[in-house]
Amino acid sequence: MRREDREEVARLPLFAGLGEKSLDRLLNGAFLQRFPAHVELIREGDPPDFLHMVVEGQVELFSRYRDRETTVSVIVPYDTFILAAVVLDHRYLKSARALAPCRILMLPAEAVRQAFDTDPVFARGIAQELAMAYRGLVQELKNQKLRTSLERLANWLVRRDQEAGGTGRFTLPFDKKVLAARLGMVPEVLSRTFATLQAYGVTVDGRSITLSDREALMNLARPSPLIDDPEV
Questions:
Q1: Which of 63, 72, 92, 139 is 20 to 30 A from 41 via CA?
Q2: Cβ proximity of 162 and 229 under 8 Å
Q3: 114, 144, 174: which is the final residue of a domain?
Q4: Based on the domain organization, do 134 and 165 belong to the same domain?
């Protein structure tokens, strides 16, 4: 790894407070690589050789069963994937592919497990990552089971608008097919749901979204921090 890459990697949240020797052992054999969009990065069922972290770009975690495929989640900087498989040395339960050009940090799985066993600072960081992933999963289950498709899309639009600066205008960060799977619906249902949201001031033009009546959309969505806020 180049020195400038190592200096950048050392500032990532997962390595906060880590000593130089521990960091050196983790980064021995690590890679910081660029990947083009649509490249498959890992495949479900394979054993984990590396722990992956998104440094730039977006990565889609997805799964297949028979002739069906669904998006499980979308990973952004500086999230890892798939940490539980690496810690347990179990096979991947999901596949991953780049949604856009991205840079990925790849840490050797064995080095991660050794650091987890011997360095309490790193072990604490790993435990926090796993805890956040678990809480995120609980929030997603609540979102899927307690809300209608209309409510799920409304809440996703409200949150995305906030992340984009709250102007009421933003661009979908990925294809509608991915958004549909992310929200637990097929593309046809997503199209009908967008059409229903026109009454709440939502206008769709390709991947461009305009929210002209945010109050009406908020009244429909009724976001809850216990479902929607990853920091809670």
A1: 139
A2: no
A3: 144
A4: no
- Residue tagged 């059409």 (tokens): 195
**CB–CB of 220/200 below 8 Å?**
yes
Structure tokens at 204: 């769709």
CATH number of the domain that 71 lies in? Answer: 2.60.120.10
Q: Is the domain of 19 the same as that of 125?
A: yes
User: pLDDT by residue (tens digit) across 95-122?
Assistant: 999 999 999 999 999 999 999 999 999 9
Provide the pLDDT confidence category of residue 4 given band limits of 50, 70 and 90. Answer: confident
Asked if residue 75 lies in contact with residue 57, where contact means CB atoms within 8 angstroms, the answer is no
User: Within this chain, do residues 119 and 173 fall inside the same structural domain, yes or no?
Assistant: no
Instruction: Give the per-residue pLDDT at 230.
Output: 86
Report the number of distinct structural domains present in the chain.
Answer: 2
